[in-house]
Amino acid sequence: MPEQPSLVDRHVGFVHALREAGVPVSVAEGLDAANALRAIELADRESLRAAYAATLVKKPAYRPGFDVLFDLWFPATTTGLGAAGRAAARIDPMTAEVKELRAYLAELLTGSTEPELRAFAQAMVERFGRQEAGPGRQNWFSYSVLRALSPETLMAGILREVLQGHERGGLAEKTARRRVNAGIRRFEEAVATDVRRRIAEDAGIERIARSAVRPPLDQVDFLRITKADLARLRREVHPLARRLAARLTIRHRKGRRGRLDFRRTVRASLQSGGVPLTTHFKPPRPHKPELVVLCDTSDSVSSFAHFTLLLTYALREQFTKVRAFGFVDTVDEITRFFLPGADVVEAMTRLANEADMVRFGRTNYGHSLERFAERYGDAIGPKTSLLILGDARSNYQPPALDVLKSLASRARHAYWLNPEPRAQWDTGDSVAGDYGTVVPMFECRNVAQLTAFIETLA
């Protein structure tokens, strides 16, 4: 077993692991955390957790990853069940039959303290968690513990016990179900935490830390995003849409002066003998800008397209006019799928089935730009912001740069968001560099980078 690190080593390793997991921690914040440790009782693990969280965690989205890493670097126990855990259990978890263990777990799920549930989870990992991981190799697994005890199948028996004398389907059943489901989630998390701890003891904390934490939501790569992540991202979209609209409006106001204010100019000229040395202008009339979104919807960027269409759906409330166009090797207007009141999931389904964006199935930016200019060129005017979303990979087809130049020259602003890492631009069939000479291109792989792009529009 690897040598246990000192408190200083644990602190340094924990801060480094947070940074590697995408949780931003500055040097000053690391020092603040170290100073906070002087004001608490180090033996109180929850006070230690609270001190680190107060100094290092800036957003609620960072808290789950923080807790996983904290449990690895500052585990509740280091070996087996421990005396406290054995005292908490009324049965011997190492010799009892599975039926007895399941009955005891059912009691814990309806009402137990956190130490009791954690102690039982540790004992179950000790008994069921070590499994063969290959010839001559063993490792710790959560699934074998949960398979042995099947906590999700205990609900029916628990409800029979809890609801004696109560009508089924009423408030009492709903309350009981909610409490049991919460207990199951706590038990599953306690098992997963202890499994990670044991793997860390065997293989080293750094090794398991790198794979134990998913990046925070705002740093999840658009090209590797899951359906669950997309559902969570819907909550992030509307604030981003409001900020993007506000930034583009500010740029519009800064970009031109209002009409000459004749009265103020003449009045000011009296101070210089009637010579109008200073001219005054009326402020430009505020307005909501217009937006045209041109989005690559091919399979290679499908997750990115899904997110950007969610963004388009939210943007329609922030602009005077929003027109959205999707393309693979030809282009179609998809604004009709995002009318006010439309369900976004239903809109995505209809778009995939009804939009005319595919001729032969291989992405062709050049042909799509040409068709856009022919069919929808009048969508772009002096009040329009053009937003192009895609990876600029065109299967070695002509890029139609002159068409893009013409479109960009007619728009008030034009921007290109590319979901690929900048290091991959201009590799293979990518023409990102050529397109970037016409329209400013920004790497946009996650919500954090999209937020940074919006901030640059000031």
Key attributes of the depicted protein:
single chain; 458 residues; alpha/beta; Rossmann fold; 3 domains; 6-stranded mixed β-sheet; two-stranded antiparallel ribbon; 19 helices; elongated
Descriptive report:
- With 458 residues, the protein is an alpha/beta fold.
- It has three domains: 67 residues; 133 residues; 233 residues, Rossmann fold.
- It is built from 19 helices and eight strands.
- The strands form two sheets. Strands 5-4-3-6-7-8 form a six-stranded mixed β-sheet. The protein has a two-stranded antiparallel sheet with strand order 1-2.
- A hairpin with a 2-residue loop joins β1 and β2.
- The longest helix is centred in the middle third of the chain and has 33 residues.
- It is elongated.
SSE pattern: HHHHHHHEEHHHHHHEHEEHHEHEHEH
DSSP helix fraction: 40-55%
User: How many independent structural domains?
Assistant: 3
Main sheet overview? 6 strands, mixed
Q: Which secondary-structure class do the elements indicate?
A: alpha/beta
Taken from the alpha-carbon principal axes, the silhouette is elongated
Q: How far from one another are the termini?
A: 54 Å
The Cα radius of gyration reads 30 Å
Residue windows where pLDDT falls under 50 for at least 5 positions: 80-88
Strand residue content:
5-15%
| CATH topology grouping of the largest domain | Rossmann fold
* DSSP strand count: 8
CATH superfamily of the largest domain: von Willebrand factor, type A domain
CATH architecture of the largest domain: 3-Layer(aba) Sandwich
Strand line-up in the sheet with most strands: 5-4-3-6-7-8
